Amino acid sequence: MNFKPSLSVKETLDHLSVRLDPIIAAKLKPYLGGLPWTKILEILDGKKGSERSHRYRTNDLQAQLRVLSQRLGDLGYPFDNGARFVSSTANKLKIYRNASAHNEVLTVRDAYRAADASVELLLYFNDDEGLTELRRIRREALVALAEQEGVSEDSAEKAAVLEPTTDYDDDPSDGNEKGKIEPDPEVLEQAPEDPDDQILGLKRLPYEPWEVVPVGEKDVLYDLRSTGSKESVRSVVNEIASFEGPVHVERLARLTARSFDLKKLSKSRAKALVRQFRSAGLYIDEDNFVWPRDLDPNTWSEFRPNDNTVRRFFLYISPIEILNAAKFIKAKHPEMSDRELEAAVLRTFGKKRRTKAVREHLVKVKELM
Question: Which of 163, 272, 273, 332 falls 20 to 30 Å from 230 in CA-CA distance?
């Protein structure tokens, strides 16, 4: 069988983009006042602190998957249910879309997984008409996968399923804080740049952690000399950095390892992953934070508040982000003492305790000031 994975993935994603545009437009129409749904992405860029120079197209799959996977301000996740199925599936498909768009090496297994995820997404949206073609593409990929591996189609299908697990090395913790710690209400407010920004409300975007989606086997991380493995890793790290950045290199390495089902990340393998971050074109600053391409650390003035129900290690928050919060608070309260300002900044990120590590991290912020 002359099956070409790259062509299969492209066929899957091209068909998916045609089906998603009207689904997205219909869902968001009540909020837009006649504007195209891509206006929401422009507003999100402004809230995030990146330039609004990009013009999105409604038939662009990258734009479609972003609006499905990201919190849309006060609208929340309008396409999703409580289990966040749509957003996690869209995150997975973004990685296959990146690989396809950059002509990366794709496998038969990738082709099946991309088609299967697309089928599941359209099933969720009850798009029976669109499902017919995607099921055909998935079937062709499954037949090719079974033939390649010399097993039955049932066996090939079961082997291709990636089940997320939870017993990974976890991020460090600041320890337990007593009681509920919430940012002061004023840091949640964000003045709109133009009237249309009010479509998504007047609140600042909070910090949200990347939800790990399994995209491959750990063998990919064991073979980072091969072109295909390097490309697979780079597609993942670009998506995570775009979602969470600025993100500490250690956290990005852990999240990447989890995406490929690697539960224990050794120091040598972490260093190998960091080399891939740089090869992916991502900037790593002197404090070891990785920046997405759409944010300039020299001009970025935003920050992402969170309460202490969100697990966020304080040392994994960029000093620049902490500084931005401090500047915002100080501008509103110039009379604040340094001690009061410190406390307000810590509350902004769901913290209260001034451990030695926290104090040392705050020193970096004072140096920047």
Answer: 163
Supply φ then ψ for residue 41, to 5 degrees: -70, -35
One-letter amino acid for residue 261 of the chain: D
For residue 118, list its beta bridge partners.
none
> Measured between alpha carbons, how far is 144 from 4 in angstroms, rounded to an integer?
9
Query: Rounded distance, CA 8 to CA 89, Å?
Result: 19
CA 286/CA 367 separation, integer angstroms: 13
Query: Does the pTM of the predicted model rise above 0.85?
Result: yes
| Tokens describing residue 231 | 């490309």
Print burial letters for 51-71: b (CB count within 10 Å at least 16), e (below 16): eeeeebebebbebbbbbbbbb
Please provide the distance, in angstroms rounded to a whole number, between the alpha carbons at the two ends of the chain: 63
Task: Read off the amino acid at residue 28.
Answer: L
Residues in the chain with pLDDT < 70? Answer: 1, 53, 165-168
- Tell me: the pLDDT tens digits for 165-188? 666 677 888 877 888 999 999 999
Q: CA 276 to CA 244: how far, in whole Å? A: 17
Q: What is the pLDDT of residues 229-284, one digit of tens each?
A: 999 999 999 999 999 999 999 999 999 999 999 988 999 999 999 999 999 899 99
Contact 321, 303 (CB under 8 A): yes
DSSP lists the bridge partners of residue 189 as: 203
Long-range Cβ contacts of 36-42 (<8 Å, 24+ apart): 37/67, 38/63, 39/196, 39/199, 40/67, 40/72, 40/199, 40/200, 41/66, 41/67
